[in-house]
């Protein structure tokens, strides 16, 4: 089992390479075309076949930046999986399992940051995009659907075992990983809040933008 993390200093965006080296298979989570040379080198060096391209979210039709980014993802030659439907995307039901080596990646529908966000459970870790880093995404500094976000976090993420590792889509100071226990107790956006309190905080954030 291999996990590699790539961090973009300018945007704070995080991408991940998941691999089962024994089976020579890999998946990419939220890859960026600017990282292609590094990613291809990593795959070639380990003799890995790219099995899946997994996207936690698309910004409702506005994330094709730089121009042609989505088309470049398709040219990687592996199925692109995301929640938002568009030509060339593989749609997977909630709970669906994507084979990866001797194991699998499980798809979790977790809307909120955008309407069609998905998270991906791989072994003891979840790649959950910007569900928990609510205000860290430069293209969308607040949730598109606050009610759905609250439900996704409280019902899908915080019900996982305490030790489950959570990997973000964006990070400040390159902080990529936390745990369910840590976020449940100390998240600046969710810990100690009621549902109404969360909505009030999101409304206050929106008013400041």
From TrEMBL:
SUPFAM superfamilies per the UniProt record, alphabetical: Metallo-hydrolase/oxidoreductase
Location of the Metallo-beta-lactamase domain: 12-170
Name of protein: Metallo-beta-lactamase domain-containing protein
Species classification: Bacteria, Pseudomonadati, Pseudomonadota, Betaproteobacteria, Burkholderiales
